[in-house]
Amino acid sequence: MRIFFVISCFVPVFSAYFSYFLFYQHRGCQRNESEPFLFRRGPSLAFISGMDILNSKNKLSGKRVAILSEEGFEESELFDPKQALEEAGANVKVISPNKNAEIKGWSKGEWGKSVKVDVKLDSANAEDYDAIMLPGGVMNPDKLRMNQKAVDFVKAFVNAGKPIAAICHGPQTLIETGVLAGKTLTSWASLKTDIQNAGATWVDQEVVVDNGLVTSRKPDDIPAFNKKMIEEFVEGRHAPGLTQGSRSEPKRGQVINF
Asked: Would you give the distance in Å from CA 233 to the centre of its chain?
């Protein structure tokens, strides 16, 4: 009887915690150090959640994804999405106009880890890829937007209706393509005026999806960013030019809250 009583008390408590855990992780909530340990997010921003990882594994099998970057990318904004894409089965290639074999990231005010450049921009062809991801960092997109080959490479994805994901300062390169008019997106807050001047609507949300264009604000948004990026990359091509709304949910300009 005592054993039965202990079990009967334990099961509801465990069920309540497990349900809250799934709900909390699914909403992509940020880690809060003031919360009890059991209810905190894990330490990795690449972590989507146990259920999301199971559901997303191999979703991108056969998909080829380009990550366009220069030196000075925000470390977590390249490595974490790259890991999420690879875990979902994508064939990911880092493309860069930089002449070095590796490009260095930036983390917490100093140089961070380096990543191997798989393909030089001069020899890259947008037709070889199904989607593109643009990491942030201050130096990285500032260099890319001044490189016409980089701008043309990104614009080729827009013209073909291929999905694009950009985080933090990443949308700077999109501004240079001249295709943001009428779009709804987010970014690092300092880009708000530039994006509005480009004819787009800027919103302060962790992730926004507009007809295949996925954007987020900062490293804290990476879990939500990864989730929507994978969903859009699975969906594939949209209307060329990122116009006239999405082919399926979420709809054009829909703000995603978790």
From this structure: 11
Whose CA is closest to 170, among 69, 247, 255?
69
Query: Could you list the active site residues?
Result: 168-169
238/183 Cα distance (integer angstroms): 14
pLDDT digits (tens, 9 = 90+) for 145-192: 999 999 999 999 999 999 999 999 999 999 999 999 999 999 999 999
Antiparallel, parallel or unpaired: β 91-96 and 64-68: parallel
For the whole model, what pTM was predicted?
Answer: 0.73
Say which CATH class 44-256 falls into.
Answer: alpha beta
Domain segments of the chain as ranges: 1-40, 44-256
CA 178, chain centre distance (Å) = 21
The string of DSSP letters for 183-248 reads -EE---GGGHHHHHHTTPEE---SEEEETTEEEE-SGGGHHHHHHHHHHHHHH---STTT-S--SS
